[in-house]
Known about the structure:
- The structure is a homodimer.
- Chain A is of the alpha/beta class.
- Chain A has helices spanning 118-131, 145-156, 175-189, 206-220, 223-229, 249-264, 267-279, 306-318, 336-339, 341-353, and strands at residues 5-8, 13-14, 20-21, 25-31, 41-45, 70-71, 76-77, 82-86, 101-102, 107-108, 137-143, 161-167, 292-298, 322-328.
- Chain A has an eight-stranded mixed sheet, sandwiched between helices. In chain A, strands 2-3 form a two-stranded antiparallel ribbon.
- The first copy, chain A, is globular and about 70 Å long.
Amino acid sequence: MSARQYAALPDPFGMHRGGALRGARVAFETWGTLAPAKDNAVLIFTGLSPPAHAAPSLADPSPGWWDTMIGPGLAIDSERWFVIVVNSLGSCFGSTGPASIDPATGERYRLDFPELAIEDIARSGYELLRALGISRADTILGPSLGGMVALAFAAQHPGAARRLVSVSGSAGATPFAIALRSLQREAILRDPAWQNGNYAPDAPPGTGLRLARKLGTITYRSAGEWQQRFGRSRVAGVRPPGSFSPEFEIEGYLEAQAAKFVAAFDANCYLYLSRAMDRFDLGPLAQACVERALVIGVESDILFPLDGQRAIAATLERAGVATRFHAMPSIEGHDAFLVDIPRFSAVIGDFLRAD
Amino acid sequence: MSARQYAALPDPFGMHRGGALRGARVAFETWGTLAPAKDNAVLIFTGLSPPAHAAPSLADPSPGWWDTMIGPGLAIDSERWFVIVVNSLGSCFGSTGPASIDPATGERYRLDFPELAIEDIARSGYELLRALGISRADTILGPSLGGMVALAFAAQHPGAARRLVSVSGSAGATPFAIALRSLQREAILRDPAWQNGNYAPDAPPGTGLRLARKLGTITYRSAGEWQQRFGRSRVAGVRPPGSFSPEFEIEGYLEAQAAKFVAAFDANCYLYLSRAMDRFDLGPLAQACVERALVIGVESDILFPLDGQRAIAATLERAGVATRFHAMPSIEGHDAFLVDIPRFSAVIGDFLRAD
Lengths: 355, 355
């Protein structure tokens, strides 16, 4: 069972850095009901890897990635809001991306996909609202990559949303984050199975994707969390001399996380989305592009650190946006929004319930 | 010109976790003169990758890795101290390691090298002192891996050194550090050129070593330093759509660092040393194993963080060692001891000049 819906994008869909897509679409899911005045939409952009299935619904009761955040009576309350989660343009869960068929050739785009920018993902969300007959979202919201997209949306479509929530986002990648993402991409690019992007769907560059995802997982969490959770615990098993097989629980955890990712995500899509994050650089915002904003950063986030979160809030303030900044005292690192639900629910719920 | 000297280890040299080496040796270099009372030796263990050539000397005037720290009138003053730097057992710059010839077979050890422990590197330093006729070092000192070795030396050979300096060391790897090293090893192990350890010397697993070193470099420095130094500066060059070649200065920096390492270091030695760091777990120290200690940690070090440095100092205090703890306010991260020389010189020089 799928709750996935699709919206066609304008054809052609001109890309921010050149080129255009023909017959492009985005995949999305919704929760709740659009009010007759069409003024209760909350549009959510996702992080790098998840699909639009953020929470269960009647059409698809399977668990999502933000189950405890979106739903009746939850912080993003589907009894009040018409909640839309959109799969990023360039991703591989229904929206058009490098793994999609290019109608001009009948083959997958692969590296012929045009350069992808965060601004393109933002515009695809804007066009989705228009396709749904919504001229103004109540709130645009995004964690991580989704936070970058929400900021790009505000910059590019001033007035198209009343409020903005950026969760552990970024207004411009730091060289530390660029270094990590560059290394993740290199692991894929140097995997012989990558084949210059021309791998068969059933023979992906698994080693490169595995290394990339493990490095991601290391930077999404925090040293403090893992100290509490794993310490120096060993996994069972005998390792003869000269064997370098996993020995500590943390290594088994990384392997499990990576295996899930390799089975689900397309390598070329990963490369495009990853580089779009490196290249994003917000710049100043138009005056009052949104009315109110909430910016959340996590104290233990090494990838999108707190000073960058403060910079986002300052940029919004300078544009005349009434901005709340919240430094979340969580040990869970960049991924805290997926884990530390009570804290995030309180702050996001309060903001959405206020004017 | 080489200043490298060799000392034979006891034959056989029994290893801490089983097995033994035959005909093993360590490579070392020295600066200054051993006093007639043989009471002025400062024995330095290195980090993961450097050779014993830490500074220029008459026999080898080429630059070393701690040029501005070791020499006449410098913090580690070769006019007062007989300074010995030893290449770690298991490394590939003259000391016996996996890339050395096994006398039993006439072939390189490769993965037949016995399990390597930090305690083995410590004991090889102790045996070097004995070979030089030194019954007690004035000071044992080590940064990073070398700090772990110095602690293992104190635990294993109580009384064999009067003082100890641990610079950004560790008494036991955190799961965060284990995760990073496990990923570095996996990059090598999954490189098809690794050949289960049986690569030809002129065809090493360069991709794996390159990825491992880049990840190392990312974790040895700090986000703050790179923000100041590189920001979002671009490198010159045109990148056609679909190309993922390096674009930001930080990417060029990582590549340059990695290229030097791939040309110099042996992959199997890297695997053995890396895992030895994961497995090290100091435990309590014997009472008064040394008289005095200096423990230095760096505030921006994400790999061997400050709370771990405090734990080292506490362990030494509990063993009755008069311990100074210094939290270095440097932006340079784990590698600060290689870069932020004025600050380190002041603290280490003061300690060595005191009683």
